[in-house]
Amino acid sequence: MRLNVQHVNTPSLDVLDSWVEKQILALGRVRQIDEANIRLARLQDASPAYQVNVHLVTPGPDVFAETRDHTLRAAFEKAMKQLKETVTTRAAKRLAKLKSNASVAGSKSRGTR
Fold first, then answer.
1. Of 23, 37, 29, 36, nearest to 91 (Cα)?
2. 74: burial class by Cβ within 10 Å (0-12, 13-18, 19+)?
3. How far apart, in whole angstroms, are the C-alpha atoms of residue 68 and residue 43?
4. Would you tell me which of 32, 47, 50, 62 could form a disulfide with 75, CB atoms 3.0–4.6 Å apart?
5. pLDDT in tens, 62-100
6. Is the Cα torsion angle 103, 109, 112, 113 positive or negative in sign?
7. Phi, psi angles (nearest 5°) of residue 42
8. pTM, two decimal places
9. Domains of the chain
10. What angle do CA 47, 19, 8 make, to 5 degrees?
11. SS3 helix, strand, coil % of the chain, rounded to 5?
12. Measuring CA to CA, which residue among 17, 31, 11 is closest to residue 89?
């Protein structure tokens, strides 16, 4: 996985970057992530001041999240919550579709004799 973290008006700290990387890698256990583009920004004249944009390049549709909050950590945690919900929803839909396709195929093969 390729991880790109862009800081806009925020300092690039090793502690922050490793925490972000850890969170994204944990999400990578649930869904294959080929590339993660993360933008951490502090908006000068806005309230809430911190904005996080995440774009995950995955097989199939890409996954996006955009959040804002008064602290960078809170904004990133909100983005991770959105991403987890999206990824688990898609996985559940895919599993349900596979199960329904298998049951339809199984019922068709039984009645062909």
1. 29
2. middle
3. 10
4. 50
5. 999 999 999 999 999 999 999 999 988 887 887 888 888
6. negative
7. -110, 115
8. 0.81
9. 2-102 (3.30.160.100)
10. 40
11. 50, 25, 25
12. 31
